[in-house]
Amino acid sequence: MKIAATYENGNIFQHFGRTEQFKIYEIEDGKVISSQVIGNDGLGHGALAGLLADHAIDVLICGGLGAGAQNALAEAGVEVVAGASGSADEAVESYLKGELISTGANCDHHHGEDHACGDHGCGHHDDEEGGCCGHGGDEGGCGSEEGGCGGCCGGGPRLLFEGPNAGRTVRVHYEGTLNDGSKFDSSYDRGEPLEFICGAGMMIEGFDKAVVDMEPGEVRNIHLMPEEAYGQPDPAAIFTLRFEQLPGSEALEVGEHIHITNSFGAPFPVVVKAKDESTITFDANHEMAGKELNFKVELVEVL
Question: Which domain holds residue 32?
Fold first, then answer.
């Protein structure tokens, strides 16, 4: 069995037709035995169904997608689980446990986190940390205006950095810690190295830069300032709604992680920041925004 997830920097990319990458998981006996990230070959929307069919994909996990893409995927025999968000690895694990349910999320050809009043849907989402070094920063991420891989002019990755590993697929183990020593993520704990195209902006900037000139077997310890990781928190990503604008939100608790949908039907993760008698405030910033990060990085192999 093969599962594909729309993919950007470790997370489920929220617009199927605009995804630059898919992460493909090989499943045996209900467990992931291998995974790899592939580009979109310069394709978009309905044509991506053919790409997935060529890779013998059985299930697609994504955020939102339009009716045309849904029809094309159905014709290709691909089961669609829409409305997912957060870590791609965790979404796949939830699917294998029978805990990930498709919401049938639709989206049009526009993609953005437009917090328009009255257009939000609310759903609980266990947004635990995982695969964090691959979670997107706003700059240089695959699919962003700069450094996106698989561009329409040729399908190959556009490289952000130079070095012996630039443009090559690498497999790395890593452990991430905060300055207080607390561990927030580890590929060692998951028992599987992280695989990505080095220098193509698929990872946060500082992590990518560190790997681009490493040799197989080398272990490197790096310290990243926020500007090299997830950036500083964006005040514009904090917004307040009245309870009537988001039915069910009155039952949420401060600190709770959920996902809500924007005005185009695409879900995105938020955390409840504050709440009073009539309103609730959400924070859509990445949980690592504004933090200095430390990584132990081991280059396992260059493919």
Answer: 2-114
